[in-house]
TrEMBL record:
UniProt keyword list: Signal
Signal peptide: 1-23
Region (Disordered): 55-77
Protein name: Xylosidase/arabinosidase
Entry keyword annotation includes Signal: yes
Length: 483
């Protein structure tokens, strides 16, 4: 009877949210069209694409000298860049932009659905970051009114000091570092690619100066993606290694002696990459066939039901071999449960068995930890604010506890440091209504009836990291006070 009701609950959990986006660069197709919200999603970009981005030229760029980390006084934790073991690593979108920020795309990205009209009707995010923490020079006014009559401002991830601020927080709160998202959609467009690479350079410099760690994560999501992306990834990686020299950074994450690379979007029914033969070839290239300097410890960002080839996973038998050919497996769990009870059920039924299988096969298993979910504005009002409540942090802590006590889990993905579009962000955001703009529908940290500080989720992530490292005792209760 008990088993039966658990199973029902479990089934309910996996069905109710199957339409969830998984962090794809949803507005990507508009990068090079001066389009309205929905136009041109499938049309070809109109800008010049004749430049061959991937000509394998070596540049004369100076090699970054390995920088030794310099932790701030009071923060003694320096993550070990030579291993994924005992790390909680945050996903980092780094996709916020505004016209004039210095990035070649020169438009609003991700705060608003419109390129040039930063009005409340175009708002795309549910959480308002603590904008007073950034240099005024790194912010741009929108058309949204604040309560004092001034205009709400927003930051750009293309600005080095914005990214540096985020990494200083990671250092100050004992957070290890990030996987920097590299969305492949429209990567063949030079301006778009340069913008994304600017942010990656910011991440590299900030990780080096704060002693944090970083690695690249490709993302295959996006409407215009097809199997040709598998060739593009190879060329892009060679360019990052040869010309950006990212794997030479002392803070680039390595595991078993190899630079770590994740590819998200493998095997999802919603991702338009279906050629398993070509995919197997790419995986083999990264593992053995490429010249040695391109070899990586390869992590597959896969559907939550990868092991059973069901639900969000493609179901053809070939995918089983694809999944199990990765060095590491990271299932995307955002939206896979809506309550702590739902989590327990999913954990017992899926995650425990995933982790067991991976341990048996010698595959690194990295589950997703996430604080809650809200995409009211992104979803044009068709979802309620605070759709999956954070419960003052208890929702996330239940996951931290279960993951840390599982001997088959040594690495955790924290979704995501700066993701305000889907409301999973853990960085500093408005804690209550007083800190919000006068217009718009927003999620604040006190939404569940508990007053919390702006940095509450930075603190929780730092505490979870300490618990994984064994620096504090394993506990199923949040170990700090919410002041
Ligand atoms: C893009 O749209 C904006 C706002 O409608 C307009 O001012 C601008 O001239 C357009 N740019 C191009 C290149 O069409
Ligand atoms: C860092 O990790 C590597 C690989 O596991 C290990 O050999 C090394 O001793 C670790 N360094 C520190 C300072 O713990
Ligand atoms: C997938 O790609 C094919 C071409 O490779 C295209 O015809 C199709 O519309 C795409 N499907 C989706 C869902 O984007
Ligand atoms: C696949 O995507 C590439 C890159 O975006 C594009 O150039 C090509 O036309 C697409 N192929 C098909 C069949 O849609």
């Amino acid at each position: 009877m008990k088993a039966c009701s658990t199973m029902l609950l479990f089934l309910a959990t996996i069905v109710w949210f199957s339409g969830l986006s998984h962090g794809n660069d949803r507005t990507g197709p508009q990068d090079y069209t001066n389009s309205s919200k929905t136009a041109n999603l499938f049309s070809s970009p109109t800008i010049d694409t004749t430049t061959n981005l991937f000509q394998r030229k070596k540049t004369n760029k100076p090699v970054a000298s390995p920088t030794s980390p310099s932790p701030a006084p009071g923060s003694d934790y320096v993550p070990n860049a030579s291993t994924l073991s005992k790390l909680i690593i945050c996903g980092y979108q780094g996709w916020f932009a505004f016209p004039g920020d210095g990035a070649p795309i020169n438009k609003w990205k991700h705060w608003f659905s419109s390129d040039y009209d930063p009005s409340v009707s175009n708002l795309e995010v549910d959480m308002y970051p603590s904008m007073d923490e950034y240099d005024a020079a790194d912010l741009l006014e929108s058309n949204i009114l604040m309560k004092d009559g001034s205009k709400a401002k927003f930051f750009s991830s293309a600005r080095p000091n914005v990214v540096k601020k985020h990494f200083q927080w990671m250092r100050d709160y004992g957070i290890s570092g990030v996987f920097q998202m590299r969305f492949m959609e429209n990567m063949d467009l030079p301006k778009n690619r340069e913008w994304k690479t600017m942010v990656l350079r910011n991440v590299k410099a900030a990780a080096e100066s704060t002693g944090r760690v970083f690695a690249v994560s490709y993302n295959l999501a996006g409407n215009s993606i097809n199997d040709s992306v598998l060739d593009a990834i190879k060329l892009d990686w060679m360019d990052l290694v040869d010309n950006e020299r990212i794997t030479e950074s002392s803070r680039y994450i390595r595991h078993t002696g190899l630079p770590v690379l994740r590819i998200f979007g493998v095997g999802f029914k919603t991702v338009n990459v279906t050629d398993t033969k070509k995919l197997a070839e790419l995986i083999k290239w990264f593992k053995t066939d490429a010249e040695p300097q391109y070899h990586v410890f390869l992590i597959g960002g896969v559907p939550r039901r990868w092991r059973d080839l069901t639900d969000d996973s493609r179901e053809e038998k070939d995918w089983k071999d694809i999944y199990q050919s990765f060095h590491g497996i990271h299932p995307w769990h955002v939206g896979s449960w809506g309550t702590t009870t739902g989590f327990q059920s999913f954990y017992n039924n899926v995650i425990v068995n995933d982790a067991k299988l991976c341990a048996k096969q010698g595959i690194l298993y990295m589950p997703t930890m996430w604080p809650g979910f809200s995409w009211h504005n992104l979803n044009e009002g068709n979802a309620q604010v605070n759709q999956i409540p954070r419960l003052g942090g208890n929702f996330m802590w239940a996951q931290a506890y279960s993951y840390v006590q599982n001997k088959n889990i040594n690495t955790v993905w924290m979704a995501q440091f700066d993701e305000v579009d889907e409301g999973t962000a853990i960085f500093k955001v408005a804690k209550n209504k007083q800190e919000l703009p006068a217009e718009g529908n927003w999620l604040t940290l006190d939404a569940d009836g508990v007053a919390l500080p702006n940095d509450w989720y930075l603190k929780l992530c730092g505490e979870a990291q300490k618990m994984l490292l064994g620096k504090i005792a394993l506990t199923n209760k949040i170990p700090i006070k919410n002041k």
